[in-house]
């Protein structure tokens, strides 16, 4: 029970990394506000777990960060952990990319994280073990064709998180980000459904497999728990060694 009586928000919780993290946090004793877009399968995340409360919301909508944090505080009496996990991708060459696509990717991946963190900070200051965890990507440090918006957003997550760590350390608040590699999630399901593509990416890892959502959830658990209490401003790469030859 590494998170006994901790109160957490997990975004992007209807599937993939978010679902695995919300369920793992709950198994480890936390009460969790599971957040995802309306119409997604938050009920599947909750199952019969009384410690998970679902909250359908578009995190980019006006007023959503305030409503999400308020819902957690109302349900649990406070907040200890903010796991900004929700994210989107997209692929377009810069020459062909629309402003709308750029804004969509950056709006979800970094702007919403900033707004949720800003809203959560006053409540985290009252926590005995306050944590901010943000999902970035190995693409915060690398790139590929057509990933300008995605890479910029994930590099932005890294920069935002390091600054949060610097500014909030005096309050005992840690802030860290996770860099997933090739993970089988809803975002990657279409590509990895092709055995050839999945096989190529599995071979890129020294461990010779794709990552699973639980692999990232376990990294988030470390950062959320007392084990990670002296880790801040850190990018935790959970990629099965994918970047060793990059």
Written description of the protein model:
This protein is α/β, with parallel strands linked by helices and 246 residues long. It has a single domain, classed as NAD(P)-binding Rossmann-like Domain (Rossmann fold, 3-Layer(aba) Sandwich), CATH 3.40.50.720. 42% of the residues lie in helices and 15% in strands. It is built from 8 helices and 7 strands; from the N terminus they run E-H-E-H-E-H-E-H-E-H-E-H-H-H-E. A 7-stranded parallel sheet has the order 3-2-1-4-5-6-7, sandwiched between helices.
Q: Do you know the CATH architecture?
A: 3-Layer(aba) Sandwich
Strand content: 5-15%
Q: Give the termini separation.
A: 37 Å
Q: What does the main sheet amount to?
A: 7 strands, parallel
Order of helices and strands: EHEHEHEHEHEHHHE
Task: Look at the helices and sheets and give the structural class.
Answer: alpha/beta
Characterize the overall form.
Answer: globular
CATH topology: Rossmann fold
Low-confidence stretches: none
For this entry, what is the oligomeric state of its chains? Answer: single chain
CATH class: Alpha Beta
The residue-averaged pLDDT reads 96
* Strand order across the largest sheet: 3-2-1-4-5-6-7
Count of domains: 1
What is the gyration radius calculated from CA atoms? 17 Å
In DSSP terms (H or I, runs of 4 or more residues), the helix count works out at 8
